[in-house]
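User: I'm preparing a small set of examples for a lab meeting where we compare how different chains pack in three dimensions. I only have the primary sequence for this one, and I'd like the structure in token form so I can line it up with the others. Please keep the answer compact; I'll paste it straight into my notes.
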Amino acid sequence: MTVNNTNDFTHFNAQGRARMVDVGEKPETRRTAVAAARVSVNRETFSLIRSGGTKKGDVLTVAQIAGIMGAKRTFELVPMCHPVRIDGIDLSLHLDEERCSVEIEARVSCDGRTGVEMEALTAVSTAALAVYDMCKAVQRDMVIGEIRLLEKTGGVHGEYQREDEV
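Assistant: Understood. Below is the structure token output for the 166-residue chain.
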């Protein structure tokens, strides 16, 4: 998609300056979003995560809590995000032995005037950063990647389902 001008974006005013979109007139609807991320690690790090043998403790539990906290604080981290009354966050992490990775998925929901895509994306990003932080003493070349929105519901733009899931 080619963007020709600032009219293609909702976060710019007529003068091209950043603005926070006014959602005051929008009706409250049920909104959900699912996002995912991957942290690729080496075999040694993978084994340490699985066994709970890192010096800092249980990597997956810490990352899960970090992801939930990240989702709740999205509006403080992403400048044009509205504070959202999140109803629920389900963040799961599992180990993929074949890919030698930590797979992270967040499901976020609310009844509101704006979506929770950014909260879901922030949740998986924060969880991935926590995995990195917990394991950096044994591996510095981990790769955080494939952060993506998988699906969303609610709002004027309707439903979205990612078709090219990696």
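A couple of notes for your slides: DSSP finds four helices and five strands in the chain. The CA atoms of residues 13 and 149 lie 26 Å apart.

User: Perfect, thanks.
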